[in-house]
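Database export, one record per block. Field names are fixed; values are copied verbatim from the stored entry.
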Amino acid sequence: MVNYSNYETAIVETYGIRLVGWPQGVTFISPSNISTMGDIHKLWDVLKAQTCYWFALSPVEVKAHTAELDAL
């Protein structure tokens, strides 16, 4: 299960993966919490087209991400 509220640390930093291609205008929350059919359809469309996908970061990219989080 994806931890949407702590995504940057719980997912990106911990596992070194990033979700790419989330549809613009759709709040980044659990799909089960999306409240409009229009937003559900937007998410479905990018998943079906495979333009929304998980991308593995390199160790250097994970370190850079962690440094960015630490700087906040």
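Remark 1: The chain is about 45% helix and 10% strand.
Remark 2: The helical segments are 7-15, 37-48, 59-71.
End of record.
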